[in-house]
Amino acid sequence: ARFGPDEKYLEELKGKSDWNDPMRKFQADEDEADVGKAKASAPAAPVKAKKPKCPHPPWPNRFNILPGYRWDGKVRGNGYEKKWLETKNQREHKQQERWKWLMSED
Fold first, then answer.
1. Average pLDDT over residues 76-100
2. Quick one: 82 exposed, middle or buried, by C-beta within 10 A (0-12, 13-18, 19+)?
3. Range with the lowest mean pLDDT among 17-26, 65-74, 87-96?
4. Which residues make Cβ contacts (< 8 Å) with residue 24, sequence separation at least 6?
5. What is the per-residue DSSP string for the chain?
6. By C-alpha distance, which of 58, 85, 52, 95 is closest to 73?
7. Which of 33, 54, 64, 98 has the most CB atoms lying inside 10 A of its own CB?
8. What gap in Å lies between CA 26 and CA 30, rounded to an integer?
């Protein structure tokens, strides 16, 4: 049983990386800056080829999935995504209006 955090345990916790840590992106930025300084003296690594991207603007969808690079730009859906997004936005708008109306009474 642990009675209190000691220095070794705190260092171990700092070394762990959790997938849902909100500060992870800031830590990654600092790590990249440190690595960038170290890479300045290291030989250049081979550059990977970039994956091809679709030239057409993506349509809005629930999961923010980008279209494949071979997509021709035509949306072949039945309109469900558009209706779903409109309903979601309308619901959020009503909630904001309701909140504004409640706050304006005071």
1. 94
2. middle
3. 17-26
4. 17, 18
5. --SS--HHHHHHHHH---TT-TTHHHHHHHHHHHHHHHHTTSPPPPPPPPPP--SSPPPP-TT-PPPPTT--S---S-SHHHHHHHHHHHHHHHHHHHHHHHHHT-
6. 58
7. 54
8. 6
Residues 79, 82, 87, 90, Cα dihedral to 10°: -140
Residues 6 or more apart from 82 whose CB is under 8 A from it? 60
In angstroms, rounded to a whole number, what is the distance separating the alpha carbons of residues 4 and 50? 49
Which tokens go with 58? 């993506």
pLDDT digits (tens, 9 = 90+) for 28-59: 777 777 666 655 555 567 788 888 999 999 88
Question: What confidence category does residue 80 fall into, taking pLDDT thresholds of 50, 70 and 90?
Answer: very high
